[in-house]
Amino acid sequence: MFSVRCAEIIQFLRNTESMECSVLRESPEVTLSGFAALTQAKENDVSFWVGRVESVTHANGPSCDELLNVRAGLLFVPIGLPEEFFPKVKNLLAVAEPYHAMVRFLDHFVGNSFNENMSVGGEIHPSAVVEGFVDEGCFVGPGCVVMRGASVGRGCRLESNVTIYPNVVVGERCIFQAGVVVGSRGFGFYEHEGERRMVPHFAGVRIGNRCSFGANTVVAAGFISPTTIGDNCHLDSMVQIAHNCVLGNNIYMASQTALGGTTILEDGVQFAGGAKAAGHLTVGKNAIVTAKAGVTKSVPAGKTVAGFPAIDIDIWRRQMVELRIMAKKKLK
Fold first, then answer.
1. What is the rounded average pLDDT of the residues 220-233?
2. Is a pLDDT exceeding 50 seen at residue 121?
3. How many Å apart are CA 243 and CA 104, to the nearest integer?
4. Segments forming the whole domain that contains residue 62
């Protein structure tokens, strides 16, 4: 993977990232070749601690005894932390934002070797089928298909078994993880003479720049206008975007979220895991849809909604409290 000394990491953070770094403890002889979570890190691993009990993922942090037994090769910690907190850590580096320092370390020292390994065999894997247009700097992995009439912008990465249908236009520097499908026919039907018939979806998909799509995510093609996704949108695994949806910029959708046809998400909308939206509605700018919520009507800008049908989160919380009180009374 990689092999680096603490001094090289400090130099990178100071000179390239302009980070303030304070060396609390240094062991120049230690070679760093891995990374791990705080309590799992070994003597050659890089890790970090944000300095509070609750972590950035809102899980409970380590106990005091666990902190004393951390054995990382290099640990990023907050500025002002007493050195004795981690007596068994080889290299202790204080920075303003330990989480950010860890991310930049991974991007620079681990990401380069990871991407080089992903690119073995050339930019287009021999098993990939490319009939459409693929711009310079793209990586097209094993089993990928770019159909005739599709266009993939510069610097995109199709990792494996990605399918891009005709009339799909992808911007620059987008990432598609394994199994992503973009531009497949939407799930639309109409009735004619008592019979349900399939709606053709030939308008395709338009995707902006710097978007990412998690494994097995599907973006369906539009009917007579394309399904569109703006810039800097990030969709987790198994996300469903139905036909003719319109997503603005900076959209975040966690795993197993889904949008019904012709849903509009304005800039900055966030969908937590398992949340769903019925079709033909708008979720306003910077609104948040909490986990497993079901949106059945439009959501105003800036609102946070929860439950099914989704309502203002403060009202939903009060409802849950009242229901628990009622249930306890019934049990007496």
1. 95
2. no
3. 37
4. 4-118
- Same domain for 155 and 300, yes or no, is yes
CATH number at residue 293: 2.160.10.10
**Contact at 8 Å (CB) between 223 and 243?**
yes
Predicted TM-score of the model (pTM): 0.79
For the stretch 157-178, pLDDT in tens is: 999 999 999 999 999 999 999 9
β-sheet with 34-35: strand ranges across: 21-25, 91-95, 74-78, 45-48, 34-35
Q: Give me the phi and psi of 27, to 5 degrees please.
A: -125, 90
Active site residue 234: no
Tens digit of each residue's pLDDT (9 = 90 or more) over 38-71: 888 999 999 999 886 444 444 556 677 778 889 9
Counting other chains too, the contacts that 96-103 makes at CB distance below 8 Å and 24 or more residues apart are 96/19, 96/20, 98/48, 98/49, 98/50, 98/51, 99/48, 99/50, 99/56, 101/13, 101/17, 101/19, 101/48, 101/76, 102/35, 102/46, 102/47, 102/48, 102/76
β-bridge partners, 227: 205
